[in-house]
Amino acid sequence: MKPRVSLQDSALRNGNFSLRIDPVQSKDIGLYEAWVKYNTEVHSCHVELGIITVTLSPPNPIIENELLLMSCNSSHRASLVEICWFHNEHLGPTSRTFCSLSGALSILHPTMSDAGSWRCQLRYSDKEIISATYNLQILGYDGPTNPVVYAAAGSAAD
After folding, report:
1. Over the stretch 54-77, which tens digit does the pLDDT of each residue have?
2. Which residues does the UniProt record annotate as the domain Ig-like (predicted)?
C-alpha cells in the first residue's frame, strides 16, 4: 500500500499507533489489525474499514443543462433502507433534501445553483447510518440573463 500508508512516529510515544491511508481506495476494504509491544506488554486492536463512494454520470465537472445522475454506494453488508441527498446544508433558503429507496439522484437540467456541497446519507436495516460529502462543479454561465458589457474604445473587455 506504499506510498499511501503512513504511521505518525511522533504520536507513537503518546500511545497513538494510528494508521493513515491517503487516498483510500476500494481495494482497501477489510479488517485491519495492529499489534504494539511496549516493554513486556502486547496490545492489539482490530478495525474494519468500509468504503462509501459517490459517482457521477457524466463525470465531474458537469455542463449546465446536461442530464446528471449521482449515485452513492457503500460496502456495508446490511440491507439499504433509505438514501437521502442533502444540498448545501445549513446554507439557508438554497438548502434542499431528497430521499428515495433507489439510491440515485437525477437532475434533468442542472444549473449553477445545483453546484456546491452534496451529502448522501445511507440508512441501513441494522440502524447504521453512513454518509459522504461531494463537491459538485457545474460549468455554465452565472451572470445576468441578458448581459451587456460596455468598454471604452481601445481598452480590454472581459
Report:
1. 999 998 889 999 999 999 999 999
2. 50-131
